Amino acid sequence: MSAMVERNEIAANIERVRERISRAAKRAGRHGDEVTLVAVSKTFPAEAIRAAYDAGLRHFGENRVQEWESKQRFVADLDATWHLIGHLQSNKALRAAYLFRRVDSIDDLALAKRLAAAAAAEGKNLPVLIEVHLGDEATKSGVAVAGLPALAEGIAPFAHIDLVGLMTIPPFADDPELARPYFRKLRELRDDVSRRVGRKMPVLSMGMSYDFEVAIEEGATEVRLGTALFGQRQPKL
Hints:
Blueprint: H1 7-27, E1 36-40, H2 46-54, E2 59-62, H3 65-72, E3 81-84, H4 93-99, E4 102-106, H5 109-122, E5 126-133, E6 143-144, H6 148-155, E7 161-167, H7 180-197, E8 203-205, H8 212-217, E9 222-225, H9 227-230
Parallel strand pairs: 1-2, 1-9, 2-3, 3-4, 4-5, 5-6, 5-7, 7-8
């Protein structure tokens, strides 16, 4: 597996992370089984995905349609849920609907409409998350808080895509506690939007390798980890 960590190290990393998830959930009066661990496999080779799968993981996140196309055939036999967690360009909606089982980064109504049409063409129902931009970083994608209610209300009636929750990436900080207000805000926004659209939105996807325990304490139902599982990120393909 060349420069990446060995299979047994990936398995050991997963075990350590699961223990941390369990402890964080317990602090919040929850159970660790309530939190889905999504392995962020972007830039890592198919062998890393297979090693994590063999160690028990069933959810994997990729950032780019093109990168996933180059790896998918090597792990097509795995019964896993493949998440698109990066920004999706409208012209790649059809490919995304074909390649992924969930899209976690919707931030625009026109994009949602194209994805719904693409999912219909594939004859599938595609769960989606709205990505919410809670920081002031110009490089981050996501809908602004002010635009979230209208976007959710616009998406909710679409056939073939199913709005199941929200996702956010807070500004990076060395102290994970600085992310807590963002996670708390996303939970509050989810509850408000759920009431507005009159449907349950069970998924709160928030928390990464450096702050996932705080996210779980604030209600995360999914955490997206790469470095904590696979080691340092590989160069982009």
